[in-house]
Amino acid sequence: QVQLRESGGGSVQAGGSLRLSCARSGSTYSGYHMGWFRQGPGQERKCVAAIQSDGTTSYIDSVKGRFTISKDGAKNLLYLQMDSLKPEDTGMYYCAADIVSVDAGSFGLSIPYWGRGTQVTVSS
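Request: output the structure for the sequence above.
Response:
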């Protein structure tokens, strides 16, 4: 069974940076497509950045140029570098994995593997 564990969340002031990490375990399969989802206060969980098994990345418009998704396949790690953070970036951030493509902007309703999330709070 695939297990995902996020780390790296915290509280920062607007304009600051954070790097989230997601460690994957429980499977030797190397072809997962992965994404970072955000659920803000009173909002639905939504994919803000995705990376496919071939390394192709995608982002929602509001984070383009500020967030960078990457992965270390050898270590089964997924990252989200978040720069120039804004208060509207506040939310719980979840790592997710699927055997089919993960789309930025999607709600991930059919994605089978999720972490428990890490909280990011950006103050103005």
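The radius of gyration is 13 Å.
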